[in-house]
Model the fold of this input.
Amino acid sequence: MKPDLGRLLEGVAARIIAQAEELTALDSAIGDADHGLNMKRGFEAVLADKANILAKPLPEALKAVGMTLVMKVGGASGPLYGTLFLTLGKELPEDPTLADLARALTAAVEAIKARGKADFDNKTMLDVLGPVARHLSDGTATFASVRALAHERAEATVPMKAIKGRASFLGERSIGHMDPGARSSELMITTLCDELEACA
Amino acid sequence: MKKLINDVANVLAESLDGFAAAHADLVQLGEERKFIRRKSLKAGKVALISGGGSGHEPLHGGFVGHGMLDAACPGQVFTSPTPDQMIAAAEAVDQGSGILFIVKNYEGDLMNFEMAKEMAGRDIETVITNDDVAVEDSLYTTGRRGVAGTLVVEKIVGAAAEAGQDLQSLKSLGEKVNKRSRSMGIALTSCTVPAAGKPTFSLGEDEMEMGVGIHGEPGRRRVKLMPADAIAEEMIVAILADLEAAKSDQVLLFVNGFGGTPAMELYLMYHAAAGALARRGVKVARSLVGSYVTSLDMAGCSLTVTALDEEMTAFWDAPVHTPGLRWGM
Done:
């Protein structure tokens, strides 16, 4: 069965909205306590515009999701997650293969680095997205291995000291908390794996 | 949480509607509440646009008007505004002489203003404020936060724009004022974000946060509450250590309340801070005391010291008429 974009979008949106309080709680430990609220607002706007988005071919639909997130989320997450979806839309063909996905996610990771002037090991969403992009490219990826990696890399942000984002103001005090952006990236990736596996 | 609200989801919208109605002689609310603009624009003037998360009122919307900003874009509480807001504001107030964005140094604000600049297709320059000495400016952080010194930048650059300076001169002036302004804050209690419903952090009865940011972010360290004189002393020492020019110059001393501290205590802190400056031979030439760059209901204050020169003093003294700041007219 061909993956249904509507189902993927609804799945990701539902997961982010359901976990909004957890994301906000993570953000209040080391940031400004708004990550869950902002992501929820963004994905509610995506759901509200779903009919319009799904009427488009995949690349244009992803760009529309990206633009909605840029305009509705605010904070740093809006431009960063917006850049993720805008780049995926720019890089993916209408009917992508795993190789296309690996290449597009790698391009998106680079675009996020440029937008946020950040790098790996700064305790950000890149610490989940970067390793997942590399794993998709190495030819051994399964739904289970991608899920496990996303979870492991989000957990791996706990002992990191933040170098970007508001958490960086905490210095040493940022150690011991999971990065909220790494967690929201993990949630998106694991949900996509779940939905794609159910379609397979 | 005990707040004067109806529905948590409508706090910002209802507050903006009230603000626009109360100051209808000075400002107008843009479509979909994307921005607050000056009611009567000045033809040919460089347009000044600022913005940032809400919860710092009167910053920034309260500083829209003659001699300060042309437009301000309010984000959700403590959340950057989105690019469509700045694009719409630019469309509304651009007089053909260019636009200056004044942006506090937070990654969200920087990225959203940067995307707006890329997408607006207009002649736009940006001044970034980062006056908070509590955070180390190093490769290992995002850099210093923009806090109450932003008001000083907006006032002085606003007066220069009103006087007809061009975009490049205003950008240079803004950067100069930012460089010569240094701030540090302390918190006695946390703020409570309405949508979160509970305090952002907790402080014991006898504790304070030294070096707090304007979103209740932690600063240098958590310490036992000290007498006001000792607090002011530590803040002034940190500020002056960072403000090399201050010793030989006349300064502006700005005592800013965070929203939950009465004016009585702010004046007491002014007395303490002015004393700490006087003991170091620094003369206070201008002063401002009040809650202007707030952090919702947080108790505490920040001190800002700006090393003035003749040009900056003249623009500080120039007439201003906004909902939040008014003198000379």
